[in-house]
Design goal:
The complex is a heterodimer. Chain A is of the alpha+beta class. Chain A has helices spanning 3-22, 24-27, 126-162, 164-179, 182-191, 199-213, 216-230, 233-240, 245-281, 293-297, 303-308, 319-347, and strands spanning 48-51, 55-67, 75-84, 86-96, 100-108. In chain A, the strands form two sheets. Chain A has a three-stranded antiparallel β-sheet, with no helix packed on it. Chain A has a two-stranded antiparallel ribbon with strand order 4-5. In chain A, α3 (126-162) packs antiparallel against α9. Residues 346-352 of chain A have low confidence and may be disordered. Chain B is mostly helical. Chain B has a domain at 96-286: Orthogonal Bundle (MetI-like fold). Helix content of chain B is 77%, strand content 0%. Chain B has helices at residues 2-29, 46-56, 62-74, 88-123, 128-142, 145-159, 177-215, 218-225, 230-241, 243-267, 273-283, 286-314, 316-323. The longest helix of chain B is centred in the middle third of the chain and has 39 residues, at 177-215. The radius of gyration of chain B is 24 Å and the shape is globular. Classes of the chains: A alpha+beta, B mainly alpha. The interface between A and B is large, with 43 and 50 residues.
Chain lengths: 352, 325
């Protein structure tokens, strides 16, 4: 398989994962904030296809769980009654991609609650919260990476074009940001911003803080590309024909940087999602009741939750498929640009 | 040598000054300060509050506060903690020692693993053993630190093999010296595993790539043809040839470990800079935060300085640059 088609497959798979999270309202059976005080810390429910006395079912079914009498977190399955999973049911209202109002869900349990990944201390469905939490965490990562890359691109291009003392100064500042351990920098910036704010404002705050931290590396890379591109023959020729600086940058120099920017994006997004998770986990990010992959894990800081309810740990693994996707994409992008460069060097002309 | 050293020291000083200015700049952007919460407390009178504000000079402009702070810093004074009501420096120092113990151990371990493993897999580039190793480290790469730390914690709690959380057991003061070391060692295992696992994959890949590239060099083929033994070939000839990018990576790995340790310390309640800094942020304890950030930068700068010295020692080209011209 060629690198190109592999890249395509990776990108499509990653896009599908993101689409799943973007349409969380449809795939999640419940509202992320809906509490079911009768079922706190319910363990994950298994879907069955085979029942003891009536044989194989084609429609998956589950057994309802009820609290054991006198206990506050021990459940027993009601084996006598098989409840079929219903598909395309009407349930809690949500907005498709944040715009269209809808009440249709992919599946639901009908009158009995169905918690695929269990429920938390307030009886909120963990599966729904993981999906909705993904929206927050991934969006923070994506916007943060976009912000970082635009800052890096602007500063890197400016430094490369201007040269001289301005270049020197900008690169020194970039070095400053590169020199700090990034979580400490994140902490320092977050430390001096308001602590208790409503979720939306907190989200924006986190995104800005994350986005402002990492611009050093892309800026340096872009500057390097601009500097080398400035000396390329076709750029000199264009300048000789009287092309303006802005035109040169737009038409000839920045296209050279596009592969680096793409690769950087594939590296930065998972890093920034992780940064959001870290901040929210520590209570400095997006606050309850809005779910995010980070603040859903915060309850694990309590010893009893950590020991007794293993499914509360599952949100930590939600990131893994996305990580895999981005990692594969980054290595393919790196490989393709590297391979293209070698090819170019060998043949002496541009590739393709 | 002197010129090289001076240049590096000037660079380090610039970084430290830059970071401190940056930290002060952020702090002035912040609305409110430590004493704002006290306004709501009916037991503290307005006069007392004003006296406190005047004493700690929180209302003066940033430039003046920075100048005072910087002058005090030259005397080894990092300012005064609002929350603890004592100077910051001793507070930070006890925590920093613990963080250094943790990161230092992890740093030594991760390099001791990364170099032999990297050389081993570079020698077998593309063969099943190498592929298996890169898959194994790939798995480590995709599991977030946070997930790994929490997972190990669950495992430790359930199995009871290792103590979970903290750095010492109850009654540590009464232990004998050998028992004390054993106690700290058993507590450090979990956080160190997480740190090593988070830093190892990247380092391993770099070592592997650098050594593999060096192995391609004509002089190494000639050495192979001379019949020099495999171990000597790898460690005496290939590794030094690959050393330059790896030494440059030394500082980077320290940064990764320092960042990673902050989170791991909070999760595993290791009494280092991480939990302390988090607490200070939540309490708006300004000088503790600035001091902590500055201290972490200092560690990193010191690490990079050591890397530079190593590079100077290992790479004759840099030595020539220093003496020539």
């Amino acid at each position: 398989m060629s690198t190109r088609s592999r890249l395509l497959i990776g990108a499509v798979a990653l896009a599908a994962l993101h689409l799943g999270v973007a349409c969380a309202g449809f795939f999640a059976p419940y509202d992320p904030g809906a509490q079911d005080r009768a079922h706190p810390y319910a363990p994950p429910m298994r879907l069955h296809f085979v029942e003891a006395h009536s044989g194989i079912h084609f429609r998956p079914f589950f057994y309802a769980q009820e609290l054991r009498a006198g206990s506050f977190d021990e459940y027993e399955e009601d084996r006598g009654r098989a409840i079929p999973v219903r598909f395309f049911v009407s349930g809690a209202s949500y907005r498709v991609l944040g715009v269209l109002p809808s009440r249709r869900h992919l599946f639901g349990g009908g009158d009995a609650p169905l918690y695929l990944l269990g429920s938390d201390g307030y009886g909120r469905d963990l599966f729904s919260r993981v999906l909705f939490g993904g929206q927050v965490s991934l969006l923070a990562g994506l916007i943060g990476a976009g912000l970082t890359l635009s800052i890096g691109l602007c500063i890197g291009a400016a430094a490369g074009i201007w040269g001289g003392w301005k270049d020197e100064m900008l690169m020194r500042v970039a070095e400053l940001f590169l020199a700090l351990p990034w979580i400490y920098l994140l902490f320092a910036m977050r430390a001096f911003l308001p602590l208790t704010v409503p979720p939306l404002k907190a989200f924006l705050l986190v995104v800005v803080v994350i986005g402002a931290v990492g611009w050093g590396r892309p800026a340096r890379m872009v500057r390097g590309i601009v500097l080398s591109a400035k000396e390329r023959d076709f750029v000199r020729a264009a300048r000789g024909f009287g092309a303006s600086g802005g035109y040169l940058l737009r038409r000839h120099i920045l296209p050279e940087a596009s592969s680096v920017v793409l690769t950087q994006a594939a590296i930065l997004v998972p890093q920034f999602v992780l940064a959001e998770m870290t901040l929210s986990f520590l209570g400095l990010g997006v606050p309850e009741p809005v779910p995010s992959w980070g603040n859903m894990l915060a309850s694990l800081q309590h010893y009893n939750v950590l020991v007794s309810y293993w499914w509360m740990y599952l949100p930590a693994l939600a990131m893994v498929p996305f990580f895999v996707g981005y990692l594969v994409l980054a290595s393919l992008l790196q490989g393709s640009s590297h391979a293209a460069k070698i090819e170019e060097a060998r043949s002496g002309v541009g590739c393709e | 040598m002197i010129r090289f050293l001076l240049r590096r020291i000037a660079h380090a000083a610039f970084l430290l000054v830059g970071v401190s200015v940056l930290a002060f700049l952020f702090s002035t952007l912040a609305p409110g300060n430590y004493f704002d919460d006290m306004r709501l407390n009916p037991q503290i009178s307005a006069e007392r509050l004003n006296a406190l504000r005047a004493e700690y000079q929180v209302d003066r402009p940033m430039v003046m506060r920075y100048a005072r702070w910087a002058r005090a810093l030259l005397h080894g004074d990092l300012g005064f903690s609002f929350a603890y009501n004592t100077p910051v420096a001793p507070l930070l120092w006890t925590r920093a020692r613990n963080t250094l113990l943790l990161t230092g151990t992890a740093m030594v371990l991760v390099w001791m693993l990364a170099v032999p493993l990297g050389v081993w897999s570079a020698e077998r580039l593309g063969r099943p053993a190498d592929v298996a190793l890169s898959w194994a480290t790939g798995v480590l790469l995709i599991v977030p630190d946070l997930a790994l730390a929490l997972g190990l914690l669950v495992l430790a709690v359930r199995s009871g093999w290792l103590p979970t959380g903290g750095m010492v057991s109850v009654g540590f003061e009464g232990f004998s010296a050998a028992h004390k070391i054993e106690d700290v060692a058993s507590h450090i295992v979990l956080p160190v595993i997480v740190l090593v696992a988070s830093a190892l994959p990247v380092l391993l890949r770099h070592v592997r790539a650098a050594v593999a590239e060096a192995l391609e060099a004509p002089f190494l083929r000639a050495a192979t043809a001379h019949g020099i033994s495999r171990m000597r070939l790898l460690y005496r000839y290939a590794l030094p040839a690959a050393a330059h990018p790896l030494i440059a990576l030394f500082g980077f790995s320290l940064g990764t470990l320092l960042s990673g340790s902050l989170l791991v310390e909070v999760v595993m309640s290791w009494p280092g800079l991480g939990p302390f800094l988090l607490e200070a942020i939540l309490a708006r304890d300004l000088y503790v935060v600035i001091g902590g950030v500055l201290l972490s930068t200092l560690f990193l700068v010191a690490g990079n300085f050591v890397a530079d010295l190593l590079l100077y020692w290992a790479d004759p080209r840099i030595r020539a640059e220093g003496t020539g011209r």
